[in-house]
Every structure is written in C-alpha cells, then in structure tokens.
Design goal:
The chain is α/β, with parallel strands linked by helices. The protein contains four helices and seven strands, in the order βαβαβββαββα. Helix content is 27%, strand content 16%. The protein starts with 26 loop residues before the first strand and ends in a 10-residue tail after the last helix.
C-alpha cells in the first residue's frame, strides 16, 4: 500500500531565495554566442567587480562532454548574464522570406536551463544589435548593450536586487 504524501512536507527543489553577500557567491556565468568581443567586454566588466566570470569555452574540459562541463560550471554559479548577439538568421516556415537575426541556439537553450535551475531573478538578459528576442518570455526585461555603457549600471541593479553586493565605485 502506498502512503500519500502531502505537499507541505515535500522540500522545494530550488535554491533558497535568501539574499547573500557577494563574498559568499562570486561566480557569474556568461552565456554567449559568436561575438567574442562582446563576451570579453562583459567578462572583463564582471572581473573588474572582483567577481569571477565563468565562460564555458575557457574552462578545462577534463574529458567531459560539453553538457557535462556545462552542468558542472552551471551548478557553481549564482548569477547569469545571457548575452544575445545577432549570430544567426531564421524565419518562420510560413514566411520564409522574412529572415531575422537571432541568437545562437545554445544561448536560447542555456537561457531556459538557467531560468529553470536558478530562477529568472538571477538571470539577466543582455542583447546587442537588432535581433529577434524570444517571444515566449515577453514581459521579461531585456537590457540593450548600448555604446554609452548604461548596461553596466542596469546589470549591477539586477545583481543587487537578488542580494549580491556590488561596489558601485568599481563600475
């Protein structure tokens, strides 16, 4: 006979929502496509805060598959910057002539992975250029990677909103 378990006694699978100082959680995962200059700009900016940017293709493989390497690195982070750049083009089959720039498929996959694993509040979407943004998450704030650097202040505000303490003087 099976015992019915009430939902109140099943622990939540997600991480605790407590706010934590940045000294306890200093790794920031940077999801990116083919624009390595933009990726490096974001990584340098994160590094300048005294945080440790995690860029997957710069991590040792250790005889792991790409997904194994990704899962391990992803499990060691508490904030993510998803950099969407116009690396690919695509269109609906219904209107195949209406090509639009899009982010790489790995970027979209990793965005969804992090939404599910650490939660939307800890994922910041930064985009560069004119590209099609995912429609199934409309209402989520996308931060444009503008030339005047306003994106830096906006990312800092997002990090601070989840309890990560950033020294604004380092910006």
């Amino acid at each position: 006979m099976y015992e019915e378990i009430s939902p109140e006694i099943i622990p939540a699978p997600s991480r605790s929502p407590e706010l934590v100082p940045i000294t306890d959680h200093e790794k920031v995962f940077i999801v990116h496509g083919h624009d390595h200059a933009a990726r490096d700009t974001v990584a340098d900016f994160v590094d300048n805060w005294g945080l440790k940017p995690t860029v997957l293709d710069k991590q040792p493989s250790g005889s792991r598959t790409i997904i194994e390497k990704f899962e391990q690195c992803a499990g060691e982070t508490d904030f993510v910057i998803v950099l969407m750049t116009p690396d690919d083009v695509g269109a609906s089959k219904k209107n195949s002539a209406d090509l639009k720039y899009r982010a790489r498929q790995n970027v979209i996959f990793e965005l969804g992975y992090f939404f599910g694993s650490i939660g939307r509040k800890r994922v910041c979407i930064l985009y560069k250029g004119n590209l099609e943004l995912p429609s199934d998450i409309q209402g989520v704030v996308y931060i444009p990677m503008d030339d005047n650097g306003e994106w830096k202040q906006r990312i800092v505000r997002e990090m601070e909103s989840v309890g990560l303490l950033i020294d604004g003087n380092k910006i």
